[in-house]
């Protein structure tokens, strides 16, 4: 299973994985039934989660809703630390994660908009460098594991800030590869996929974020809040929900 998932992630374009992977994995889910781990997003229970990643991580992917470790942590954060599920808001979800889409769309308090440059599941086709919404028009933005792919992350952050309302907030997660470099590394001359994987951790990444990520967000005019819910959870919860070890949730406020 580790080999198959790693192979599909490397060889099949993301837009096709989004269309078909959930169907196949729901069949697989039948064989993973149990009660050792629980997905807080879809509330399903399994003997373990599926492996996931180009460099496969065990016990990572919920076979029912496709939530990964970081998604399960974000869901717990939204539930326990915010009024996300009750306060009326207009939300833009960039490169929307499938595990969240139907659940966010069903919330009566949200005007929920999905946007992506290529995803067939998104409502709005958009480039994050030029977000097609008016200034000060969005309350909440989710943009997770996107900034490491874009040509100009500073321009993307400027656009996110532009469309957010005053006191609006965003969650902006990126992948980190440990040990972290002190400063974010990028080199536009590296275009070969194999060299990009060596330099940035994945062949479709164009930068590797470092310890300065929070400072980089702040330099775009945001107030940065580093939420460390993972440090508040019990060992039992971390194991039950199969959560990441070190994930900081980067919340920015305009």
Please explain how this structure is put together.
This protein is α/β, with parallel strands linked by helices. It has two domains: 2-67, no CATH class; 71-253, Rossmann fold. The chain contains eight helices and 13 strands. The strands form four sheets. Strands 7-6-5-8-9-13-12 form a seven-stranded mixed β-sheet. Strands 1-2 form a two-stranded antiparallel ribbon. The chain is globular and about 45 Å long.
In short:
The protein contains 8 helices and 13 strands. The chain has helices at residues 2-11, 14-29, 69-81, 98-105, 153-163, 193-200, 213-218, 235-240, and strands at residues 33-38, 45-46, 50-52, 57-61, 89-94, 110-116, 124-125, 138-143, 164-171, 185-186, 207-208, 223-227, 249-253.
Could you list some keywords that capture this structure?
254 residues, alpha/beta, Rossmann fold, 2 domains, two-stranded antiparallel ribbon, globular
Which helices and strands occur, and which strands form pairs?
Elements: H1 2-11, H2 14-29, E1 33-38, E2 45-46, E3 50-52, E4 57-61, H3 69-81, E5 89-94, H4 98-105, E6 110-116, E7 124-125, E8 138-143, H5 153-163, E9 164-171, E10 185-186, H6 193-200, E11 207-208, H7 213-218, E12 223-227, H8 235-240, E13 249-253
Parallel strand pairs: 5-6, 5-8, 6-7, 8-9
Antiparallel strand pairs: 1-2, 3-4, 9-13, 10-11, 12-13
């Amino acid at each position: 299973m580790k080999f198959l998932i790693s192979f599909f992630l490397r060889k099949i374009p993301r837009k096709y994985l989004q269309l078909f992977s959930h169907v196949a994995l729901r069949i697989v889910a039948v064989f993973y039934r149990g009660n050792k781990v629980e997905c807080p997003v879809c509330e399903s229970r399994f003997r373990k989660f599926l492996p996931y990643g180009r460099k496969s991580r065990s016990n990572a992917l919920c076979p029912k809703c496709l939530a990964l470790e970081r998604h399960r942590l974000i869901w717990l954060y939204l539930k326990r630390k915010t009024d996300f599920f009750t306060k009326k808001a207009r939300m833009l979800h960039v490169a929307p994660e499938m595990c969240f889409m139907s659940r966010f769309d069903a919330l009566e308090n949200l005007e929920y908009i999905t946007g992506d440059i290529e995803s067939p599941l998104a409502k709005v086709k958009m480039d994050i460098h030029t977000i097609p919404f008016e200034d000060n028009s969005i309350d909440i933005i989710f943009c997770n594991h996107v900034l490491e792919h874009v040509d100009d992350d500073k321009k993307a952050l400027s656009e996110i800030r532009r469309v957010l309302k005053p006191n609006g907030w965003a969650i902006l997660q990126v992948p980190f590869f440990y040990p972290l470099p002190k400063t974010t590394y990028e080199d536009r001359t590296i275009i070969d996929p194999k060299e990009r994987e060596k330099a940035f951790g994945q062949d479709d990444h164009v930068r590797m974020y470092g310890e300065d990520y929070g400072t980089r967000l702040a330099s775009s005019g945001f107030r940065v809040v580093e939420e460390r819910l993972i440090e508040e959870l019990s060992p039992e919860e971390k194991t039950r929900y199969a959560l990441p070890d070190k994930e900081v949730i980067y919340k920015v406020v305009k």
